Amino acid sequence: MGLKIPERVYEISSVTTLPGKTYTTSIGRYSYTHLPLPYYAFGIQQVELTKKQVILIATPEKALCDKIVTTHGILLRSLKQVKELLLDDLRIDKEQLRKLNIRKISKWVNDAPKKDSLNMLVKTLNDL
Predict the structure, then answer these.
(1) Does a structural domain hold residue 2?
(2) Treating both helix axes as pointing N-terminal to C-terminal, what angle do 115-127 and 60-70 enclose, rounded to 10 degrees?
(3) What's the CA gap between 42 and 111, in Å, rounded?
(4) Is 79 part of any domain?
(5) 4 within domain boundaries
């Protein structure tokens, strides 16, 4: 008997410097959320898929910060609240969280939306 995971991806989300938009197609929903410069440009890496195909993708640190910054209703004010978000809601493995580059995130905070929440993220990651 195979293991069934009772979840699926409902939306593919991206960030952009352009105005945000959402597209619903027969194969899924795609959302683009506006983020301001210079924050938008932090933590983006180029990945070569093939010799002729290169993509831009967020580092794990940037993806986590963008999730916090772009999700309405997330205002992180305590270590307990951040741990619940990371470990329970997002179900990120604690060992993977320990591998994140906290110094990178710290450098982005001054230019980021939701500075207080990202500062609390940095404190929590330092506490793990």
Answers:
(1) no
(2) 130
(3) 10
(4) yes
(5) no
